[in-house]
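Shipment paperwork, digital attachment
Item: protein structure file
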Amino acid sequence: MNGFWLILLAVFAAAGYFFAPRLFGFPRLKKVRYKTTPQGDLWLHIYMPPRQAAKPPPALLYFYGGGWVEGRVSQFQTQARHMAKAGVVVALAQYRVSSREGTAPDSAVEDAFDAFAYLLDSARDWNVDPQRIAIGGSSAGGHLAACVSLCQPPHELQLKTRPAIMLLLNPVLDLYTVTAELEFTCGEIALVDELERKGLRQQLSPQQQSFSKAPPTYMLYGSEDPLKKQGEYFTQKMLEHNKDVQSVSVPGQRHSFFNHPPHNLQVADELLLFLRKQGWV
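Attachment content:
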């Protein structure tokens, strides 16, 4: 009899594992390899809304921060779950960084383009609307997101379209001007210098690109963030090109304040509000 109850308990546990996300509103997490590099495989952690929508939902491809030196997808997991509950498919992209893979920012940019291309090409498989894929990131991850939106793709990659919206949290936007170096750490400056040696510094600096096809953009900085000046220049350039941009400065806050409670969910709600204004959610 004890064996019977153990088997029955195992059946109920398995049923809860498979059906709890739909019954109780928990986002479903799926993990998929989007690229193989000489340093190893790279993965997307995709948070799916708990319930099937009547029409394909929008998606957000997001890149963590870390100065191209470090970083993990766990940085934005809480926010990803929160946004998935609201009906957005959120894909957190792993990419190469110097401390883990020994690579420079151009490799990270290449990974970002490839992650977007993968999500775009497989949108139907994930029941995602390919015309409503936003891209976002924080700090160096924001740089990657802006590069995918504005810079030339690497290795002759042909994209069917670019991201439809940018969601940028204290992004790095200028690698080219002298004043930009005042806003980087020594390790980050060394990585930017490596781009200079490769002749890629201007090419991978979003601020120096054409804004003619820039998508609607939400951008957030803490008022005490040294990168805030970059955001102000970027916003000015967007407005000069009559682009839809919302730039927010949060009083008294420093770099990456939104990674911690209570700001993490508050900022996630702000991102959802911007998507709602665009008619996405």
